[in-house]
């Protein structure tokens, strides 16, 4: 069934979504795209790929960078230091979840974690 919506109309609808709706929607689009690129993927693999691709929301990432810079310059307030700690915890939790999904996908595919990461083009930062 062909869609009557243009890409621009879809993008416009996405721009009207709030952050929570968008965060819920994006992994589904990633999983759909992955399943279309590789239709032989099992639903579990598609789900794992969506979890692997999920990143820290842009607004939180920007705030984290801002607070890290203030900390490095010695200009962070006590409240900001607490916020920085909370955001860092969130980023670490997301990183751990992505790593767990990578490990599970490697196991499903019968390959090593480094080999899978290489295959997917995933490189974690040195400080991750």
Structure description:
This protein is an all-alpha fold and 128 residues long. The protein is built from 6 helices and no strands. The model has no long low-confidence stretch (mean pLDDT 86).
Task: Describe this structure in a few short sentences.
This protein is 73% helix and 0% strand. The chain is an all-alpha fold and 128 residues long.
What is the H/E string?
Answer: HHHHHH
How many structurally independent domains? 2
Q: Compute the CA-based radius of gyration.
A: 18 Å
Share of residues in helices: over 70%
- Runs in which pLDDT lies below 50 for 5 or more consecutive residues are none
Total beta strands: 0
Beta fraction: under 5%
Largest sheet: none
Identify the overall geometry: flat
The N- and C-terminal alpha carbons lie at a distance of 43 Å
Structural class: mainly alpha
Count of helical segments? 6
Instruction: Report the average pLDDT across residues.
Output: 86
Keyword list:
128 residues; mainly alpha; 2 domains; 6 helices; 0% strand; flat
Question: Topology, please?
Answer:
Blueprint: H1 7-15, H2 19-37, H3 43-53, H4 58-72, H5 78-109, H6 113-120
Helix pairs in contact: 2-3, 3-5, 4-5, 5-6
